[in-house]
Amino acid sequence: MRKEGGERLRRGERYILLVLWIATTGFIGLMIAASWPDYWRYVASETAPLAWLESVLLLLTAFVAGLMAFTENASGGSRKAGLSWAVMAAAFVWLSLDERFALHERLRDRFLKPTGFRLLPWMEAGDWIIPLYAVCGLAAVWSIWRLLGRNRTARYFFAAALLLAFCAVAMDTINIRELDKDTERLLQSVEEVLETIAMASFLSAFLCVWTRKIGGLIHQAQGLGKAEFTRGPDVL
C-alpha cells in the first residue's frame, strides 16, 4: 500500500511538472510566433507579455515556498527550516513585484544612473542592482541546497536554474545602448527567455520538495491511523 501510494505521488508530481513546462515553453513559442518576424516584440521588453509570465512564475515560487514554511511549522518540523522557507517566499515576492513593475529599472534610471558610476567597464552607468541580486542569491545558494534535502530531482532543477540565471545576469550587465538595434533585440530576447526558463526551474525544484514533503506527511498519517486501528480503542 505504501509503495503504491508513493508511486501515485511521483506520478502526480510528474504531471504537475509536465503541465508547468508545456505551459511555459508553449507561451514562449506562442509569443515569438504571434509577432514573427518581429520576434522580439512580445519577448524583449520589460512590459512585454513574457515579463508578465516571469512575474507569475516568481509569485508561484513564492507561494510554494510559503506552503513549505507553513507545512514545516504545522507538522512540527524544524523552526529554522520554516523560517528559511518564509524568507525565501518573501524574496520571491519582491522579485515578482520587481519583474512586474520594473522597480530596479526605475531606481537605476532615476537615482543611480545620474551618478555616472559603472560597476564594470562594459556595464551601463548606475546598473548595480542586478549584480547585487546575484550576490545575494549566491550567498543563499548553500542554504537553499540544504533545504532541498536529498531530493535529486529538485537539486537538478535548482542547479539548472542557477546556471540559466547566471547566464541571464551576465547578459544583463552588457550596455545594450552601445549595440546596434538588431543585436540589442536579439540579446534582450535571449536574456528574457533564459530568465523565464530559470524561473520555471526554480518553481519546479520547490514543487518537487513540497510534493515529497506532503507525501511523507500523508504516509505518516496513514501509518498512525493504521496503528490506532490495530491497537483498538482504550478500555476504561
UniProtKB/TrEMBL annotation:
Keywords: Membrane, Transmembrane, Transmembrane helix
Residues passing through the membrane, by range: 15-36, 48-69, 81-97, 128-149, 156-174, 194-211
Highest taxon above the source species: Bacteria
Protein name listed in UniProt: Uncharacterized protein
